């Protein structure tokens, strides 16, 4: 009798262990299946979002192309009252389709936003190099910007010298490693710019593929002070107010308004733009994808220079 009870107890224990093992394996398989589905869903969402942002970039390029066509044969100028400068506020993606009936259920929770900004409204660091040496005029512009922002001048001296060393044509110095040349303003940290300085400078500096002038129709007052020698902040702010009423058609108009006796350098300032930044954002619930692109307008063609996700 006792032996039979022991056998029944052992059988029950084995059965419980088997049930526990099966339940554990089933739970593990279910979790793996859920994880695979979640990864597949995330990858599909990311792929769809990437394609939507490609379409948004093409839309922005079309706007810039139409802007160039609208001003063909007229005095060339780019300013903040043009259609390209109007931001796209967050809107439901399905509203961009011909009919809501064509929208997929997932698109009901998808929201698109974006804007085009003038890349030449900032100081282009590519201008800093002239014949394999630091440009005196553009270095002075950075000095004026640092003064206005109250940033340490010793930092400016260090990173501009390292910027020169990072250029392809710079002479290699003995026992000194050439620093990697930054492609983005955020990468100036490689040259010794502090994080606190970068947080301020990113709104006023850019790095473009070639030398470009600052567009006085779109630049901020601080960039104007830095780019135009001999004026103070109040004069730059007056310039910003006047261009809101009527954009400047030439740098001669700017010179007249400022009352400058010497002519402005057309290689450093202008009233037109070739480079623009396109920012797009797609939001799907709590999931957000952002992308920044640099485009160049060459006549009627708008060419994408680079794209990167944020």
- Compute the number of helices: 7
Q: Quick one: how many beta strands?
A: 11
Question: Residue-averaged pLDDT, rounded?
Answer: 87
The shape is elongated
Please bin the fraction of helical residues: 40-55%
Alpha carbon gap, first and last residue: 75 Å
Q: What is the alpha-carbon Rg in Å?
A: 29 Å
Instruction: Please mark out the parts with pLDDT under 50 across 5 or more consecutive residues, or reply none.
Output: 99-103
Q: How many domains is the backbone divided into?
A: 2
* β-strand amount: 15-25%
Summarize the helix and strand pattern as letters. HEEEEEHHHEEHHHEEEE
Strand order of the largest sheet: 1-2-9-10-11
The structure class reads alpha+beta
> Could you describe the largest sheet, including whether it forms a barrel?
5 strands, antiparallel
Describe the structure.
The protein has helices at 2-70, 136-149, 153-165, 195-201, 221-227, 233-245, 251-258, and strands at residues 88-92, 110-118, 123-124, 129-130, 133-134, 205-206, 214-215, 269-270, 275-284, 287-298, 301-309. The radius of gyration is 29 Å and the shape is elongated. Residues 99-103 have low confidence and may be disordered. The protein contains seven helices and eleven strands. It has 310 residues and is of the alpha+beta class. A hairpin with a 2-residue loop joins strand 10 and strand 11 (301-309). A five-stranded antiparallel beta sheet has the order 1-2-9-10-11, covered by helices on one side. Strands 3-6 form a two-stranded parallel ribbon.
């Amino acid at each position: 009798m006792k032996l039979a009870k022991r056998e029944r107890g052992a059988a029950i224990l084995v059965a419980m262990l088997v049930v526990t093992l099966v339940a554990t394996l089933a739970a593990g398989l279910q979790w793996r299946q859920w994880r695979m589905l979640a990864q597949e869903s995330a990858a599909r969402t990311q792929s769809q979002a990437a394609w939507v942002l490609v379409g948004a970039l093409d839309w922005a390029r079309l706007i810039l192309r139409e802007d160039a066509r609208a001003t063909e044969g007229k005095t060339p100028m780019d300013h903040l009252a043009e259609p390209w400068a109007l931001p796209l506020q967050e809107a439901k993606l399905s509203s961009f389709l011909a009919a809501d009936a064509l929208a997929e259920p997932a698109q009901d929770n998808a929201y698109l936003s974006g804007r085009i900004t003038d890349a030449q409204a900032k100081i282009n660091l590519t201008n800093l190099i002239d014949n394999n040496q630091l440009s005196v005029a553009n270095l002075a512009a950075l000095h004026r910007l640092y003064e206005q922002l109250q940033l340490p001048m010793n930092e400016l001296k260090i990173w501009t010298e390292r910027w020169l060393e990072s250029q392809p044509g710079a002479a290699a110095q003995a026992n000194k490693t050439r620093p990697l040349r930054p492609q983005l303003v955020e990468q100036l940290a490689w040259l010794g710019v502090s994080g606190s300085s970068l947080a301020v400078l990113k709104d006023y500096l850019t790095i473009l593929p070639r030398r470009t002038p600052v567009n006085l129709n779109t630049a901020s007052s601080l960039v104007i002070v830095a780019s135009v020698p001999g004026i103070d902040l109040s004069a730059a702010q007056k310039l910003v107010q006047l261009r809101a009423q009527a954009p400047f058609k030439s740098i001669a108009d700017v010179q007249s308004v400022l009352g400058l006796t010497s002519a402005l350098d057309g290689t450093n300032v202008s009233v037109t733009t070739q480079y623009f930044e396109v920012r797009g954002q797609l939001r799907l619930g709590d999931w957000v994808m952002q992308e920044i692109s640099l485009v160049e307008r060459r006549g009627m063609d708008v060419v994408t220079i680079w794209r990167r996700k944020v």
